[in-house]
Each structure stands twice: as C-alpha cells, then as structure tokens.
Amino acid sequence: MAFLEVENVVKQFSGHRALDGVSLEVPENSVYGLLGPNGAGKTTLIRIINCITAPDSGEVRLNGKKMTAEDVRHIGYLPEERGLYKKMKVGEQALYLAQLRGMSKQDAHRELMIWFKRFDITSWYNRKVEELSKGMQQKVQFISTVIHNPDLLIFDEPFSGFDPVNADIVKNEMLRLKEEGKTIILSTHNMESVEALCDNIALIHKSEVVLQGRVYDIRNEHRPGIFRFRLYGNGFDLEHPSFTLLSKEPYHEFIDLRIRKTENISSNELAKLIFDRYEVVSYDEELPTMNDVFIQTVTQ
Predict the structure, then answer these.
(1) Considering only Cβ atoms within 10 Å of each terminal Cβ, which end of the chain, N or C, has fewer?
(2) Is the pTM of this model over 0.90?
(3) Looking at residue 89, what DSSP letter applies?
(4) Which of 107, 118, 110 is nearest to 142 (CA)?
(5) Rounded to whole angstroms, how far apart are CA atoms 171 and 78?
(6) Angle in degrees, 0-180, between the axes of helices 105-118 and 134-146, rounded to the nearest 10
(7) pLDDT tens digits, one per residue of 141-196
C-alpha cells in the first residue's frame, strides 16, 4: 500500500480543467518527483494534498485513509511562492512558524538551534529577514518546513535562489530526511535534481498524468539505441545495415564514434560487430537524461 494515494482527482476553475482524472501513488520513505511544464496542474494538485483546496471529484488518501484537514499537521509544505515577514528577526520568525505547527516554544527553540548549526547560520538568528539574500531566506524557509518533524514533506521548486553549493547542501539534507524515514514530494524543473534525488516520478501535462514510474525504468524505456565507441587508431570505414553512424570524431590517437543500432540487432551483436574488427578502448550506451525524457514526452 502506498503512503499517499491520489485517485482520479478532478479540479475545474471557471471553465479551465486544472486536473483531469489524476491518479498516482507515492511510496513510503521515498522521494517522488512531480514534474510538468508551467500550467500543467502540479501546484493545484499540491494544494489539494495540503487541503488548501478540495477536488471536485476523486480522493486523496494518507496511509489508506481519506485525507482530512487534521492530517495536514503531518505535512511540511514549502510553496513556490516565498513569504517571510521582512521586518521580523530571523530567529523570532522561525520560532513563530514552528509554534504555528504545534510545537512548544522550548522544543521549537531547541530544534531551531540544531538546524541553524547544521546550515551554519546561527549568526543570522537576530538579524532581520530583509537583511538576508534570497538564498539565505530560502534556508530559513526550508528549516521552517521541516522543523516540526512531519512524515510527509512537499517541496515546490526548493532550489530556486540557491547557488550550486547551497543547492547541494539542501539536496543532501533531503536525502538525510529520507534516510530518517520521511516521504518527500519534490516539484521542480531541475532535471538534474530529479535524477539525483527521486526514486519515482509522475509527469503531468495538460492536466493529466502522461508518464509515471521509477526513474531508472523510465530512462531505460526511452533508450534511443545509441552507443559510444572509442577506437584505437583513426580508421573506421565499416558500413552495415544494422546501424547508422551518427558521428566520427578524432581524439588524439583515438577515434570516437556515436552509432545508432537498428531494431533487428541486439546490443551484444552490435558490440561484437565492432570488437571483431577494431581495437576498442571504451564502449557504453547513452541513456537519456530525465531532461531528454521530459522534452520528448511533452513535445509529443
């Protein structure tokens, strides 16, 4: 049984159907990528899961039971639209937000100190929010999202505003939270993060789920049948009906080939064809990136 189940959810706004029969299952203790172009319906679905709005039809279940507003206390939600009170001090605001999530002041302060040390931001505690950069504010909001130790974490574009170093810090924290048993929904356009973090994904396009499953399986299913060979020497003149030579580039004393095989030959047969005739230095198959899969699926 999935930790979170969305079954046949429909949502309409004044003539526009934002979600059209969306169903997905989020496994427990995993990172689930929610992908799609702008306007696809991702944010609407996230708001329904958070009970901010209700579906016109369909159901959301948490641990097998229909979700209610009471379940929201088990969720940590970082929305794409950021918002901190600019004139408040960082620590004061983080403490306030933690108490809104049901924590006592004493417990909230203890946990905040742990998180501020982890992110190396204890010196910001008494500074006003308006003094911080966008990335620094983002760290505070990330902490405020996870501070109450929720079972389900939902991050909508969490890397926005971060430089690569801080984005990597946040990625590592997400993986650590997963190791602690949390279930995470990640909505992002950053496909590199999807490959690094996500176990499963659902791709929403024009209000419908058009692709879902394990990241490895999806990349494997979209293999274009392209192989890279590096050969010793600079001669390659083989022509064969079982493959198409896409490129041939010299590299020092080697030559690099990109070859697309036809459907009537296996990968092993193609490799044997090349290995039998040339001295092969290296050989591998090109797997599509999630960015490739995203673009291919949406444009088709």
Answers:
(1) C
(2) no
(3) B
(4) 118
(5) 14
(6) 130
(7) 999 999 999 999 999 999 887 888 989 999 999 999 999 999 999 998 888 899 99
